[in-house]
Amino acid sequence: MDITNQIEKYINSQNQKIWNELEPNYQFNFIYNPLEYSWGGKTDGTFATIITPNTTIDYESFTHELLHVYLDYLGLSPYPELIYSIKGENSMGILLVGSDLILHLYNFCSHKKMYPIYKEMGFSEYNFVNQRISFNQHDLDCIKKGFSSNGKQSKYIHQFIGHSLSLMNNVVDEDKEKCQNYLREMKLLNKDLFQIVEDFDTNWNNATDLNLTEVFLPFEESLENWLVKNNLTFENHYCRQLIFA
Questions:
Q1: Closest listed residue to residue 10, CA positions, set 71, 66, 67, 73
Q2: Using an 8 Å Cβ cutoff, are 61 and 13 in contact?
Q3: Separation between Cα atoms, residue 16 and residue 12, nearest integer Å
């Protein structure tokens, strides 16, 4: 259901400034869809669509999606461009085939640049994302077990990368000690892969523009080298399982 005529209700003193900047540059469509699990949004040229799963006025969630539009407006590398930048044969399998890891990475990169703006607006860190980090000992044990199994590591490499980045970027103070403890465990599990993930996080944090490709390519090259070094290549059973699953 198109509820674009109600969009002004979701503008308050906290997000008014960014709305004033975006509104002249985009044709906004605000859609209510009760079948959706959560809020979402996308841009296509000068069109911006925000989707809500309910009709409750939720300034935090609306502003979160508005910030996704804002990053696109500021020049964040488009998702297809990120896909196109992947060069390595083996890392392509890890990042793209049978996995949504690449989409997770793209969303993570958006959130990392969005959060300081969101916090500066005066919103609570508790409401930045739908769920706080729920990583626990069971998750860690599953990753450990996966790394020690033959021919089944792909799933756990995905989880290692995704969970490490999430733990590194926790924004809730009371969760920081727990996250740091698990990060130490992850580093002990695979120091080289952990360093690759940590370098990617640091490089994106320090990037002075939103050209994701420049930060992503060194990460992808390092991942490719790590896969080859550990005999997780296209030719072996590991990659055949990943690509033809």
A1: 66
A2: no
A3: 6
> Residues 102-107: contacts with CB within 8 Å, 24+ apart?
103/79, 104/162, 105/161, 105/162, 105/165, 105/216, 106/79, 106/82, 106/212
Beta bridge partners of 40: 51
Q: The tokens of 219 are what? A: 């990460």
Tens digit of pLDDT at every position of the chain (245 positions): 988 889 999 999 999 999 999 999 999 999 999 988 889 988 988 999 999 999 999 999 999 999 999 999 999 988 888 787 777 766 766 776 655 788 889 999 999 999 999 999 999 999 888 777 888 899 999 888 887 766 557 778 888 999 999 999 999 989 999 999 999 999 999 999 999 999 999 999 999 999 998 998 899 899 989 988 888 765 444 443 433 23
Domain residue ranges in the chain: 4-74, 79-244
189-196 long-range Cβ contacts below 8 angstroms, 24+ apart: 189/140, 189/143, 189/144, 189/147, 189/160, 190/147, 190/160, 192/226, 192/229, 193/157, 193/160, 193/161, 193/226, 194/160, 194/164, 196/222, 196/223, 196/226
Residue 190 Cα distances to 129, 160, 226, angstroms = 28, 9, 11
* Torsion angle, alpha carbons of 27, 12, 53, 173, to 10: 120
pTM greater than 0.90 (yes/no): no
| C-alpha–C-alpha distance, residues 47 and 22, integer Å | 11
